[in-house]
């Protein structure tokens, strides 16, 4: 078959030439790339869980100025106390409130903080930390007392089984939660961290 009667023209000015065909294909690829990046941007912008802060805990640590634009809050923590004991209480307070407005469901009386769990301390075996998750529901709603939920895993010694717990409680004030304070006896070790997320 001669070139002049070929199905694909070699003339770059012909609409069915290899050159113009390649240009059309490249144009389609450009459009696909553009659509792909737009989709990725939409997915990232509509994520249901958004990281607010990732911080080291030391001493008494407060996450302040929590945005009020989410429905719920979720915090993950890895913690160990420097206190001279095997384990210490892991304490949580909201908005700097120190009055007896914290009802943990593993206690029979209101306390001045949530003390859901105990975490390894200086006399626990080296390298053992407590991990846990805190949920604060409808935290920005000023019409309801704040319900919280905590799950925690802790191990103190190599030769002794660890423990796990799942509990909750109520903060008896209807104020929006704008800050969360984490504390323990003597303070936290340098490897202790908390990551706070907002849930849409």
Layout of strands and helices, then pairs:
Layout: H1 18-45, E1 49-56, E2 61-63, E3 72-79, E4 87-94, E5 102-104, E6 114-120, E7 130-136, E8 146-154, E9 163-171, E10 180-183, E11 193-199
Antiparallel strand pairs: 1-11, 2-10, 3-7, 3-11, 4-6, 4-10, 5-9, 7-8, 8-9
Features:
200 residues, mainly beta, 4-stranded antiparallel beta sheet, 1 helix, 14% helix, elongated
Secondary-structure element pattern, one letter each: HEEEEEEEEEEE
Please give the count of helices.
Answer: 1
Q: What is the 3D form? A: elongated
**Percent of residues in β-strands:** 35-45%
Q: Give the total of beta strands.
A: 11
Structural class: mainly beta
Biggest β-sheet description: 7 strands, antiparallel
Distance between the termini: 65 Å
Mean pLDDT: 85
- Helix share of residues? 10-25%
Q: Taking strands numbered 1, 2, ... along the chain, how are they ordered across the largest sheet? A: 1-11-3-7-8-9-5
């Amino acid at each position: 078959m001669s070139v002049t009667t070929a199905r694909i023209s070699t003339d770059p000015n012909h609409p069915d030439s290899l050159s113009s065909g390649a240009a059309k294909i490249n144009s389609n690829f450009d459009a696909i790339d553009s659509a792909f990046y737009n989709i990725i941007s939409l997915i990232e912008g509509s994520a249901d869980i958004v990281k607010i802060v990732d911080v080291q805990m030391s001493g008494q640590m407060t996450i302040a100025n929590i945005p009020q634009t989410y429905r719920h809050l979720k915090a993950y923590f890895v913690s160990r106390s420097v206190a001279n004991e095997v384990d210490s209480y892991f304490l949580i307070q909201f908005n700097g409130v120190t009055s007896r407005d914290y009802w943990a469901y593993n206690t029979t009386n209101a306390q001045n903080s949530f003390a859901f769990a105990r975490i390894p301390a200086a006399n626990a075996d080296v390298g053992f930390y407590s991990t846990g998750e805190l949920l604060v529901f409808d935290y920005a709603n000023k019409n309801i007392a704040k319900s919280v939920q905590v799950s925690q895993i802790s191990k103190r010694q190599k030769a002794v089984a660890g423990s796990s717990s799942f509990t909750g409680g109520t903060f008896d004030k209807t104020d929006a939660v704008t800050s969360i304070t984490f504390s323990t006896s003597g303070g936290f070790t340098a490897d202790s961290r908390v990551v706070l997320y907002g849930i849409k």
